[in-house]
Amino acid sequence: MRTEAVLFDLDGTLVDSLPLIFRTYRLVFADMKIPWNNNDLARLVGLPLKDIGKFFAGKAASRFEELYQYYYHRDLDLFTRLYPGTIALLEQLKKRGVRLGIVTSKGKTGTSRTTLFTGLDCFMDVIITAHDVKKHKPDPEPLLNAIKFLGTQAADTIYVGDSKFDIITGQNAGSRTLGVTWGLGSREELASLRPDGMIDRWDELNNYL
């Protein structure tokens, strides 16, 4: 089967930003005097910030989001790095003529800053953020929008992510799915969803093209 496009989640997949994300949530929880619950938060990371804010802060969700954005953008440059081998992989895929994109639940501003800071923007043919869709992961709308923009087919597309929401999104869209083992989701959790493959290193992605 020929692969025409590879689409990626951003945080925890291409970008090692999970330390920044959890650090930011700790600061917000402390400011708002919300009891810290790492287990609940870990279950929700990967959803849009507004949904997480509603879960933890209820009617004060807008303040939750405001504080998160402040701390996140204040510290982004200090705690955001690409995972090893990411640029080499993207260069290789580009040379093979594979279309590339990002489909993330992060907002447009955070996504733009992250991709510019890391240099990912130079490789992407399409970037879909939480602000570009009405429905969010695990609904297939974000991924299907990216596929439509590229003019490819879901069956000829691989969606790569580190969380259960990514795998379910890809399956809902009818694309092939790959789980990466270095991000948020454990190998056991991702494997239980039966993705088309699991990778421990970027070079293993070539086995699925």
Automatic annotation (TrEMBL):
One GO location term (cellular component): cytosol
GO MF assignments: inorganic diphosphate phosphatase activity; phosphoglycolate phosphatase activity
Enzyme class (EC, first level): hydrolase
Domain of life of the organism encoding this protein: Bacteria
The enzyme's E.C. designation: 3.6.1.1
Any one GO biological process: DNA repair
Pfam family, one: HAD_2
Keywords associated with the record: Hydrolase
PANTHER family (alphabetical): PHOSPHOGLYCOLATE PHOSPHATASE (PTHR43434:SF1)
Name assigned to this protein: Pyrophosphatase PpaX
Gene label: ppaX_1
